[in-house]
Amino acid sequence: MSAAHDTHEAAFVPRPARIIEVTPFTDRERFYRLALDRPLGHRPGQFVMLSVLGIGEAPISISCGPREDNILEMVIREIGSLTQVIAKRSVGDVLGIRGPFGSGFDLADFEGRDVLFVCGGLGLAPLRSLILPVLAERERYGKITIISGCRAPDAELYRDELRAWSDLDGVDVIRLVDNTHHQPWDGKVGLVTKPIADLDIDPSRLTAALCGPPVMYKFVVMALAARGVQPDQIFVDLERRMRCGLGKCGHCQINDAYCCVDGPVFRLSDLERLPEAL
Questions:
Q1: How far is residue 273's CA from residue 146's CA, in Å, rounded to a whole number?
Q2: What letter would DSSP give residue 80?
Q3: Distance separating alpha carbons of residues 236 and 220, to the nearest angstrom
Q4: pLDDT tens track for 84-119
Q5: Among 9, 32, 51, 250, which is most exposed with the fewest C-beta within 10 angstroms?
Q6: Residue 41: per-residue pLDDT
Q7: Can you tell me the distance from the alpha carbon of 255 to that of 250, in angstroms, rounded to the nearest whole number?
């Protein structure tokens, strides 16, 4: 099979993905590890269209870094008819995968620089696809800071990994919740913007990657601008309701850009002509 045909098939024809692990994270989110028929060949920040035959499909962020094996990891929130069906699937069941789609992050944009990750809520899942390869080649990067926030302790994703990352040399992990709701909590309380003013950063050396709910971006960008971080060194992973993944349906259109093709990862300086994006 030619490379061109293989790419065409990945875009239009769902590939089988067998569930090999399901781990509940919260009352709405589950971690899935899937085995594909061949390596996905994705970049950090890309997404796939996940489907169940006869039910439909939805865009789901990839939550693992690039891999040479055939394993795919993702976090799925039970929120609609498709994800309610997927929530009833178990190890051994088969789902459909199209993709990968989207622009993704380029690791070269971060090499040799201090890196700040700001993750809000479910935003940690797609940013993990960038965090993992950065941590795997720690010597290529400067100081790494990870700010991860969620509503309450029982809504936190990847808790064990966040704690493990905080033990790595040159890595600072700040875990926050909006409110403890009287639950046990060993992190801090506040919004993800709160720690930015006190970070020990050199804005000329810093590159930031943001992912979270739409309301988060404006305030994180303002906080970073106040510290002198330039728009061309801020990358945002936007949440949009992609439908086709191919820029054909127009459902994720932002002015003349298509989030599923031109994004979901954008350099902030490139969004100045697209004020509707944030």
A1: 29
A2: S
A3: 10
A4: 999 999 999 999 999 999 999 999 999 999 999 999
A5: 250
A6: 93
A7: 10
Amino acid at 78: E
Q: Are strands 94-101 and 71-77 parallel, antiparallel or unpaired?
A: unpaired
- Co-location of 242 and 150 in the same domain: yes
pLDDT at 248 over 50: yes
The CA radius of gyration of the chain, in Å to the nearest whole number, is: 18
Domain boundary among 101, 131, 156: 101
- DSSP-derived pairing of the beta strands 171-177 and 144-150: parallel
Please state, in angstroms and rounded to a whole number, the distance separating the CA atoms of residues 174 and 94: 37
Question: What domain count does the chain have?
Answer: 2
219-222: which pairs have CB atoms within 8 A and are 24 or more residues apart? 219/191, 219/193, 220/118, 220/192, 220/193, 220/196, 221/268, 221/278, 222/193
Spell out the residues 6+ positions from residue 182 whose beta carbon is closer than 8 angstroms to its own: none
Domain with 77 in it: 3-101
In the DSSP assignment, the letter for residue 129 is: H
CA atoms within 13 A on the CB side of 148: 26
Looking at residue 4, its pLDDT comes to 40
Binning the chain into helix, strand and coil, the percentages to the nearest 5 are 30, 30, 40
What are the Cα distances from residue 169, in Å, to 65, 111, 138, 175, 187? 20, 17, 9, 17, 19
Alpha carbons 53 and 171: distance in angstroms, whole number? 43
DSSP-derived 3-state class of residue 112: coil
Q: CATH number, domain at 81?
A: 2.40.30.10
Helix (H) or strand (E) run with residue 214 in it:
helix 214-226
Q: What's the whole-model pTM score?
A: 0.93
What are 145-160's pLDDT values in tens digits?
A: 999 999 999 999 999 9
Token pair 């069941």 is at which residue?
93
Residue ending a domain, among 48, 68, 101, is 101
